[in-house]
Write a structure and sequence with these properties.
The complex is a heterodimer of chains A (128) and B (236). By secondary structure, chain A is α+β, with helices and mostly antiparallel strands. Chain A folds into two domains: 2-69 and 116-127, hypothetical protein PF0899 fold (2-Layer Sandwich); 71-113, no CATH class. Chain A has three helices and six strands. Chain B has 236 residues and is of the alpha/beta class. Chain B has a domain at 20-156 and 222-233: Rossmann fold. Classes of the chains: A alpha+beta (128), B alpha/beta (236).
Chain lengths: 128, 236
């Protein structure tokens, strides 16, 4: 559950920013979680919303999370492919028909190496 | 309802709202402390290794044998991370090198600020505060420690034979962050269904060109490449 420590450090960052800009409250927070960052979106969101209530400044902050699709480099044909993760809504289908292995859309190799995607970025903060 | 103008659109309607572009890592505070730790470690004359693996994959046993082999020629210090107990630090102290036990009290990983405290204690434990090699043994966990730079120079991930060769594919973020992968407990290969090909191939799909050493810290089998790697990191 390192998402909770990360959410805690975001709240601290926001408190510092509010002080620096002499704002009374934070209203919106835009964050990018890379697809290979090892951070689970739902857990991070849950942690943030649980922790924000403990501070007057962050109580009303709305968290906007952007999670870019994962990008891979094929180790056999060197092409770059964007292959989205399976969605929640696909799970029933996966359970019924079995998972299909992730493959390069050009050469069908399964040797797909993750490219970038480890970023965890605080992009923008709206305050008043 | 908005107190200022009485409108119903509170979410989208702010008086004196100000948007500030930040574009900074969420880990900025940890990163800053990690850079300072790295500098501190270099001031102590040392290089540092962050050891990450699941619980029970042999991190402490690896350290015990490594200390035995190197302690006459290399000044070693160890920072031990665990949720509770002094047991690992006691095992290291029994080998005659300084050890600091950090207990997180529940946290699933070490972070740079907690290691900072450990470095100061380690500094006090050595004559002149100098070391050649500092090992930071992370909390046994194949998930959370990967996100946190501690100020190490090298990150070594351990995968033990009983855990199974599918672990790199199942825990990609951790294996991708490795500078070196150690496959440990190779003396148990005859008793487990562990495919060396699968482990090596899948780790190198995640990180092409990754250095991998297989060894047994119990029997000492193939230990020399690991010692050679460590000697190669030492300064001067």
């Amino acid at each position: 559950m390192h998402e909770l420590s990360l959410a805690q450090s975001l709240i601290e960052q926001l408190l510092d920013l509010a002080k620096e800009h002499q704002a009374e409250r934070i209203t919106r927070v835009a964050v990018t979680l890379g697809p290979f960052s090892g951070i689970v979106r739902d857990s991070f969101e849950f942690g943030f919303n649980a922790l924000k209530a403990s501070q007057e400044v962050t109580r009303e902050a709305v968290l906007e999370l952007e999670t870019p699709d994962p990008v891979y480099t094929c180790l056999d044909c060197s092409k770059v492919a964007v292959i989205p993760f399976a969605m929640e809504s696909d799970r029933l289908e996966l359970a019924r028909y079995g998972p299909t292995a992730k493959k390069c859309p050009w050469c069908c190799s399964n040797r797909l190496s993750p490219k970038g995607g480890t970023e965890l970025i605080l992009n923008q903060v709206e305050m008043e | 309802m908005c107190d200022t103008c009485g409108c119903q659109l509170h979410e989208h309607h702010h008086h004196d709202a100000k948007v500030v572009e930040i574009n900074q890592s969420l880990l900025a505070a940890n990163q800053k402390q990690a850079e300072s730790n790295r500098h501190h470690i270099e001031q102590m004359g040392a290089v540092a290794i962050n050891l990450i693996s699941s619980p029970g994959s042999g991190k402490t046993t690896l350290l015990e044998r490594t200390i035995e082999a190197l302690k006459d020629t290399v000044r070693i210090g160890v920072i031990e991370g665990d949720i509770e107990t002094e047991r690992d630090a006691d095992r290291i102290r029994a080998k005659g090198v300084p050890a600091v036990q950090l207990t997180t009290g529940g946290a699933c990983h070490l972070d740079a600020p907690i290691v900072h405290g450990g470095l100061h204690v380690l500094e006090h434990l050595a004559k002149g505060g100098k070391y050649d090699l500092i090992f930071i043994e992370n909390v046994g966990n194949l998930v959370c420690p990967a996100t946190f730079d501690l100020g190490e120079h090298q990150r070594v991930i351990l995968l033990s034979v009983p855990e199974g060769s599918d672990k790199p594919a199942k825990y990609p973020a951790t294996f991708r962050s490795a500078d070196l992968l150690l496959i440990t407990k190779t003396d148990l290969l005859p008793y487990f269904d562990f495919s060396m090909d699968e482990a090596l191939n899948e780790a190198r799909i995640l990180k092409p060109g990754l250095d991998i050493i297989s060894l047994s810290a119990t029997t000492g089998d193939c230990f020399e490449p690991w010692l050679k790697y460590l000697r190669g990191l030492l300064k001067g």
